[in-house]
Amino acid sequence: MRNVVFAVCLLVLGSVFLYTFLSPSFGSWERKDVGRYYLNTGLEKTGSANLVSSIVWDFRGFDTLGEETVLFTAAVGVFTILVFRRKRSG
Amino acid sequence: MFELYAGVVVISLVGICCVVWRRNMVKKVMGLGIFTNSIHLLLISMGFRKGGIPPIITPENVNYFVQHAVDPLPQALVLTSIVIQLSVTALALGIVILAYQHTGTLDADRMNKLRG
Amino acid sequence: MDVIVRTVVKGLFPFVILFGVYVILHGHLTPGGSFPGGVIIASGIALLVISFDLKKAESVIKERAAHVFEGLAGLFLVFIILSLSPLRDILMPGGKAFELWSAQQVLLLNVVGGVMVSMALVTIVYLLMRE
């Protein structure tokens, strides 16, 4: 029973991959407007020569804020699971 | 570019089969990491262009930078995703340690048969 | 562990920390930034935990201190990102491009984020290696 479910999931995943890779304009340079905007105006708006750092901290800073929250939650979560055990009641 | 996409499909299948068919709990967590890393490879390779240079401006290549640089946006998103994969792996290993302390075994099939 | 491993680790540990601080500080000029630099610093301390025992690594930084530094750095990061623009101009360095003291908020955020990532990873390593 487990092998039948596994084979069905593999078929669905393979068809999703095939649909993405065989579409005509996959990975062509004419569709990338946002990347070209970051390349043109990155240096004079932020002043940093590393464009990936300027995207991570300046243009899209709220995503990095959410990711730091996830990292902090992981540290507190490991502390709660392994150290902070409550005594059983009753 | 076809070999790169075939390699991504093969590595993701290896990761999924590792989660399903291994009995040790630590090896299942490793399979999750392999699958996530193959999807990161697919995301970064979508921003490629022919004859591309990395998106770092130095005083030498200011003139021909805009026509030749690769896309910097997928690299920034994959940086966020790597840290999230790290957090998921840390929490999963904490749960594995707790399960070992509670039942005394690391075998997933034997953990199904324990009671209480 | 062995005598050879312990001697080599004791000699290499300051250079690993120095390299991590270099990668964090030059995050706006070369590839890197806060996330790879924080991982390098945390793996230097994890090297001490593996080759010696937990007490030797506690002599460099305690578990309580790492937890407190992580919380403070996270609070400072939230305060900087969510603040208004005229308040940010007071704290930021300004200068020409391609220098070390140049980018407006990328340099400051790299340092604060590097402290947070390295202290979070050190906390996780200490918690998973307890008896």
Features:
heterotrimer; A: 90 residues; mainly alpha; B: 116 residues; 5 helices; 71% helix
What secondary-structure arrangement, pairings included, does this model have?
The complex is a heterotrimer of chains A (90), B (116) and C (131).
Chain A: H1 2-21, H2 33-46, H3 51-59, H4 61-82
Chain B: H1 2-21, H2 25-45, H3 65-68, H4 73-103, H5 108-113
Chain C: H1 3-25, H2 34-51, H3 54-58, H4 63-81, H5 85-91, H6 106-128
Order of helices and strands of chain A: HHHH
Number of helices of chain B: 5
Number of strands of chain B: 0
Distance between the termini of chain B: 53 Å
Beta fraction of chain B: under 5%
Distance between the termini of chain A: 41 Å
At CATH level 3, the topology of chain B is Helix Hairpins
Q: Can you tell me the number of structural domains of chain B?
A: 1
Q: Can you tell me about this structure?
A:
The complex is a heterotrimer of chains A (90), B (116) and C (131). The model of chain A has no long low-confidence stretch (mean pLDDT 82). Chain A is built from 4 helices and no strands. In chain A, helix 2 packs across helix 3 (51-59) and helix 3 (51-59) packs across helix 4 (61-82). Chain A is mostly helical and 90 residues long. Chain A has a domain at 52-85. Chain B has helices at residues 2-21, 25-45, 65-68, 73-103, 108-113. Chain C is mainly α and 131 residues long. Chain C is built from 6 helices and no strands. The radius of gyration of chain C is 17 Å and the shape is flat. The relative contact order of chain C is 0.18. Classes of the chains: A mainly alpha (90), B mainly alpha (116), C mainly alpha (131). Chains A and B meet through helix 1, helix 2, helix 3 and helix 4 of A and helix 1 and helix 4 of B.
Short description:
The complex is a heterotrimer of chains A (90), B (116) and C (131). Chain A has four helices and no strands. Chain A is mostly helical and 90 residues long.
